Amino acid sequence: MDSLLNMKRELIISAVLATVSFTAACHGDYRPRAVGLAEEIVVVMDSSMFYSETASALENTFGSEITTIPQTVRNRSEKLFRLTYRDFSNRDELEELKQLRNVIFAGLIDDTTNVSTFINEITDEPLRVRIRQNESFAFTANEEWFRDQWVLVLSSTDDSQLASMIRDHREELTHSALEIDFRRMEENIFRRYEQTDLSDSLWNQYGWSVRMQHDYIQTIDTTDVVMFRRPLPDNDRWMWGWWSEDVSDVSFVDQEWINTVRDSLMEQYLQGTREGSYITTEYQRDIVTSEIERDDRLRGWETLGTWQMVNDYMGGSFVNFTWHDSESQRLYMVEYGQFAPGVEKRNFVQQFRAMGRTFRSDPGYGASVGIR
User: Fold this and answer.
1) Cα(240)–Cα(266) distance, rounded to whole angstroms?
2) In this structure, what DSSP letter does residue 148 have?
3) What average pLDDT does the segment 289-300 reach?
């Protein structure tokens, strides 16, 4: 077998992993797409490792429970990814595994199992030396065999060491999988049709925009708040945006400030049908805020959590984005929410996270309309 991976493909687990760019299928690439569900990762390891420390570390990393999604009697806890474990005994079975959309190959570098032999075949000697010295343990081969494919190879000298390195670098590893998941979500959402007229209107009138899915309709339009809704009987979804001028310092932005502003806006604009009912943050469940890495002037925060209806029995997931444009000195919020009792929500939350990442702002908007 040809050597498919070299030192240039290697990912040293550090901040580099979080910023690595995935190789997209180029024009003229007529290879078939990888197969499998976007939310499933197949872990290829020797069957003797199915109950190993490494398998447990992978489950706790990629298969961890999403605590920012509501649970009901009908709706079990949902995972970041659903993991299944496979081994192979011949080349034909290996070729089938190489067709999968999300696949992890995990094995010990000096073991004699089929998986470890394969890892040795696709790595060069300098990389194997680094693995033995515990200087490297993870690298990707995205779209090496099929289009739209995420491949992660993990190896170390023994089970405990490999498990420890996976646990120590959980954030970087999951970032690797999530970034390609967001890219796929964006492609799938807007493959057939999107409302470019709504995005253009936001850009021209208010100096910012996100890509708009095909069946959102505008319900609110004020001087600093807009709202769009996708009303379906069993799966109501919405998106709202808010912005503020002349904000040069964002040192005050943290989770408490974000949720205070959110709650104030939702009490006014997201009211229920019962008197005195409105949406607010559910503080009894986990709320997670993290900064978003981008390669432009925008600084962003993503907040994941659940909402509840005051004076009513309703709740659901939300994904909030807070953005600051240092050139226009404008601060933005864009939030997506859902009410869909009994419906699994993982993929919808991933859609929201992908759509919110399409945010862009006009750095010259304030000056062009005479705000400052």
Assistant:
1) 9
2) S
3) 93
Distance of CA 189 to the CA centre of its chain: 14
Half-sphere exposure of 369 (CA within 13 A, CB side): 12
284 Cβ partners below 8 Å, 6+ apart? none
CA distance 152 to 131: 15
Report the candidate in 321, 327, 322, 320 with the shortest Cα–Cα distance to residue 362: 327
pLDDT value of residue 27: 56
The per-residue pLDDT for range 96-118, each reduced to its tens digit, is: 999 999 999 999 999 999 999 99
Enumerate the β-bridge partners of residue 95.
none
Please answer whether residues 307 and 267 qualify as being in contact, where contact means their C-beta atoms are separated by less than 8 angstroms: no
Instruction: Catalogue the E-assigned strands of the chain.
Output: 10-11, 40-44, 82-86, 102-108, 138-140, 150-156, 208-209, 217-221, 225-230, 236-244, 278-281, 288-292, 298-310, 315-325, 330-339, 360-361
Q: Within 10 A of 257 (CB to CB), how many other CB atoms are there? A: 14
Task: Give the three-class secondary structure for 33.
Answer: strand
The CB-side HSE value for 198 (13 A sphere, CA atoms) comes to: 22
- Quote the pTM value: 0.88
pLDDT of 216-227, one tens digit each? 999 999 999 999
Q: What are the structural domains, with CATH classification, of the chain?
A: 7-189 (no CATH), 196-368 (3.40.1000.10)
Helix/strand/coil for 227: strand
